[in-house]
């Protein structure tokens, strides 16, 4: 959202390449950071504060010294863990053996949906997205529950028919009634069909998921109100 210039090294001339309008500037993403006073000792802004301060003052020697102090502390901590046999367990990252890289555990790589996504925020190091329609994920989860129930139901019906066939003597009528009584077709199910098949509620996780989303919704509204008060 700033000016970009092209400099011609041969003759030293400079020309404007990009100068965003005020409308473009207004549409930039707002950056929200945790207050410095609320950060823990190992968060980057607090951890590297002395290095940053020295760089901003143009004191490269001081910045190098502060950087060495931090790195030496990290080496000592690693050495102590190695000597005591303590395993380092990252909270927010996992090691990808295929690429030999560290990946953020809770990364969300789906495209941003401006019609449904309201805000993305971090809580306890975990990125979460506030969605406009809370029912979207619930609908997907409900559909998954139904499909799982249908699969189990079909498998049960198939096993029942197999037992029915194998238990009959070769000269016995195939019309003999079996202990299994299962509808032959379960291609389409409604909520009432679920009760017919014997499972009143789809999944206990549905209720937990909805309650969790409501808690997130309340938390985001509280944050937004606080931000509005701060801006005022």
Automatic annotation (TrEMBL):
<dbReference type="InterPro" id="IPR000648">
    <property type="entry name" value="Oxysterol-bd"/>
</dbReference>
<dbReference type="Pfam" id="PF01237">
    <property type="entry name" value="Oxysterol_BP"/>
</dbReference>
<protein>
    <submittedName>
        <fullName>OSBL5 protein</fullName>
    </submittedName>
</protein>
<dbReference type="InterPro" id="IPR037239">
    <property type="entry name" value="OSBP_sf"/>
</dbReference>
<dbReference type="GO" id="GO:0008289">
    <property type="term" value="F:lipid binding"/>
</dbReference>
<feature type="compositionally biased region" description="Basic residues">
    <location>
        <begin position="151"/>
        <end position="164"/>
    </location>
</feature>
<feature type="compositionally biased region" description="Polar residues">
    <location>
        <begin position="167"/>
        <end position="188"/>
    </location>
</feature>
<feature type="region of interest" description="Disordered">
    <location>
        <begin position="144"/>
        <end position="191"/>
    </location>
</feature>
């Amino acid at each position: 959202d700033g000016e970009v210039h092209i400099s011609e090294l041969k003759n030293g001339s400079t020309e404007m390449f990009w100068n965003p309008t005020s409308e473009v500037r207004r549409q930039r993403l707002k950056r929200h950071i945790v207050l410095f006073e609320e950060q823990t000792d190992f968060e980057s802004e607090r951890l590297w504060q002395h290095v940053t301060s020295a760089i901003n003052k143009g004191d490269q020697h001081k910045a190098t010294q502060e950087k060495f102090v931090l790195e030496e502390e990290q080496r000592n901590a690693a050495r102590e863990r190695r000597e005591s046999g303590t395993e380092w367990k990252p909270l927010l990252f996992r090691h990808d053996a295929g690429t030999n890289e560290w990946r953020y555990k809770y990364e969300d790589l789906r495209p941003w949906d401006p019609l449904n996504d309201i805000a993305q925020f971090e809580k306890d190091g975990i990125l979460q997205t506030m969605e406009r329609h809370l029912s979207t994920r619930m609908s997907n989860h409900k559909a998954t529950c139904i499909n799982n129930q249908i699969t189990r139901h079909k498998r049960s019906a198939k096993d029942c028919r197999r037992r029915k066939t194998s238990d009959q003597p070769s000269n016995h009528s195939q019309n003999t009634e079996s202990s299994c009584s299962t509808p032959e077709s379960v291609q389409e199910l409604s909520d009432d069909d679920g009760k017919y098949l014997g499972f009143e509620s789809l999944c206990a996780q549905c209720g937990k998921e909805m309650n969790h989303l409501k808690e997130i919704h309340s938390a985001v509204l509280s944050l937004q109100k606080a931000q509005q008060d701060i801006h005022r």
